[in-house]
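User: Let's play a game. I give you a shape written as tokens, and you guess the letters that built it. Ready? Here's round one.
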């Protein structure tokens, strides 16, 4: 069982307090009634009042607990639902770490990425697209839009300066890309990833499974060559390590291939001369020629069962209070 709003479950800590207050009220009511009426009240009548109050206390406490659980949004089990898709939404997920400045791909990894993104987007005039950039952190540079001016502005400004966090967090970037897709739209979805694969952090299997379960293929473009290259610096030199040797940045092809394979996407190389038609052809296949009905697994909400239990208990409380016990009260 999972919960949409698990924080509400803390309210359950108040249920024992509520039950304790009701029990104290019962004891005081019995004592007061005995003091006021004295020997004129029958002992069995007093016992019935006590039992009825105790039953009401238990039922009311359980009903409140059930309502708290219902508010928390319990979910369990999965069902297949139809998901009609028409049109295409693409998130261009771009690595803007300093390693993308390497020029082992002419004119550089990042500049060639810009060229490929523009060329691919130009083949789909009606496509909705978003640009997400990442290094050690990630950011939505432009949300999902069909505005070509906003898209071009974002692509033109791709730079390592857009994200300050160092490193290459592919897991966080993929989660950010998934979140860039608007909820409830009927379009086909895909992520086009440009990266050299990262060099310090791996990729979480759980994140890849989320991408796969969301039916979002990742078209992974390996930005760089196995031989790699050096990272240019602002003073015209190259980045060097602690020993003074130039830092050679190569690609992590296996990591990119794993992303493509698990998500149901494909692998490309930024050095390919036909990379644009290949990506375009695969995006056309993702988008289809028209509407398509897909099936996806969704977790079933179960809050109504707990609301039903609460209503049943509240009904029983009314009956307990209303019905005469042993013909007395």
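Assistant: Ready! My guess for every position:
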């Amino acid at each position: 069982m999972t919960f949409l709003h698990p924080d509400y479950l803390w309210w359950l800590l108040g249920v024992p307090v509520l039950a304790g207050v009701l029990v104290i009220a019962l004891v005081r009511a019995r004592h007061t009634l005995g003091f006021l009426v004295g020997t004129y009240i029958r002992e069995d009548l007093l016992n019935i009042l006590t039992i009825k109050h105790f039953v009401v206390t238990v039922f009311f406490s359980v009903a409140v607990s059930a309502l708290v659980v219902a508010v928390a949004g319990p979910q369990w089990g999965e069902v297949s639902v139809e998901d009609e898709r028409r049109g295409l939404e693409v998130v261009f997920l771009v690595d803007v770490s300093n390693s993308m400045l390497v020029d082992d791909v002419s004119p550089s990894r990042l500049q060639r990425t810009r060229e490929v993104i523009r060329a691919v987007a130009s083949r789909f005039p009606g496509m909705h697209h978003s640009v997400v950039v990442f290094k050690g952190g990630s950011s939505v540079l432009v949300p999902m839009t069909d505005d070509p001016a906003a898209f071009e502005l974002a692509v033109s400004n791709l730079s390592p300066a857009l994200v300050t966090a160092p490193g290459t967090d592919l897991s966080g970037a993929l989660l950010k890309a998934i979140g860039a897709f608007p909820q409830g739209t009927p379009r086909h979805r895909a992520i086009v990833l440009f990266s050299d694969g990262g060099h310090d952090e791996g990729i979480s299997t759980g994140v890849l499974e989320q991408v796969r379960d969301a039916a979002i293929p990742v078209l992974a473009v390996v930005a760089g060559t196995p031989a790699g290259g050096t990272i240019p610096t602002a003073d015209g030199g190259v980045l060097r390590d602690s020993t003074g040797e130039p830092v050679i940045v190569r690609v992590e092809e296996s990591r990119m291939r794993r992303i493509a394979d698990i998500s149901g996407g494909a692998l490309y190389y930024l050095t390919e001369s036909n990379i644009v038609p290949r990506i375009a052809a695969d995006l056309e296949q993702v988008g289809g020629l028209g509407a398509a009905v897909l099936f996806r697994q969704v977790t079933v909400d179960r809050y109504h069962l707990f609301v039903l239990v609460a209503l049943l208990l509240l009904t029983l409380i009314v009956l307990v209070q209303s019905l005469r016990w042993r013909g007395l009260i």
